[in-house]
Design brief:
Layout (H helix, E strand, L loop, with lengths): L18 H6 L15 E5 L9 H16 L3 E5 L7 H16 L18 H12 L2 H13 L5 H22 L5 E2 L18 H6 L5 H4 L6
Parallel strand pairs: 1-2, 1-3
Helix pairs in contact: 3-5, 3-6
Length: about 220
């Protein structure tokens, strides 16, 4: 996506860019045999732990080997706060969800229950019927961390850590052009296999949250 959107009040009035052409532009030193010559690919050691599934590790390493054949250089880097990205995300994101979803009360936004006795009953039933289990879970977590006595202890501390994680990435990008790694520590689960264990699902985001949440798109 590029350029100004007249229907988006937050869109910057900048001319569109041909991002695809920029991606395909030859790099200095690139040749037909080595089109990726000069490209430095960072491999965070935290993204390749001993617990990484063998199938996942093999697939990623195989892809990296192909990139090397095309001229890219693999560089070892470190993102020391990778493990903190999950608690940081699951404090900040639920807090924002709790705040943003408060408008969906059945009065002006969202689902409205069909049967209710009074205004409070309409609120309760509308929100109970309109949100699924995961959304309700995040609203409850977010309400808790934003409540009096916990805002400073949780939300503000998470925002500070978010900035520190972003700083880790900025340091990495002084050593490499892009960062590569697996997107999950294991192969795909069978449908419904982790339905009763939301924490396991949260932990599976360990390699994607550090990038997409605090600093840049993954």
């Amino acid at each position: 996506m590029s350029g100004f959107d007249e229907r988006d009040s937050t869109s910057a009035q900048r001319p569109p860019q041909d991002l695809h052409a920029q991606m395909l532009a030859p790099r200095d030193g690139a040749t037909a045999a080595g089109p990726l010559a000069g490209l430095r690919i960072g491999l965070p050691k935290e993204f390749f732990p001993a617990a990484l599934a063998a199938d996942v590790n093999g697939a990623v390493r195989g892809a990296l080997a192909e990139l090397e054949k095309l001229g890219a250089t693999l560089v070892d880097v470190s993102l020391p706060r990778t493990e903190l990205s999950i608690p940081v995300y699951y404090i900040i994101a639920p807090a924002e969800a709790s705040s943003n979803l408060s408008r969906f009360d059945g009065v002006r936004y969202g689902h409205r229950a069909g049967k209710y006795t009074d205004l409070l009953d309409m609120y309760k039933k509308s929100r109970s019927e309109g949100f699924g289990p995961e959304v309700k879970r995040r609203i409850m977590i977010g309400t808790y961390v934003l409540s009096h006595g916990y805002y400073d202890a949780y939300y503000l501390q998470a925002q500070k850590l978010r900035r520190m994680i972003a700083d880790d990435f900025q340091r990495c990008f002084t050593q490499c052009d892009v960062i590569a790694g697996p997107v999950a520590p294991s192969v795909a689960w069978k449908i419904g296999a982790q339905g009763d264990d939301p924490v396991a699902a949260y932990l599976a985001d360990i390699f994607t949250l550090p990038a997409s949440w605090p600093v840049c798109p993954a």
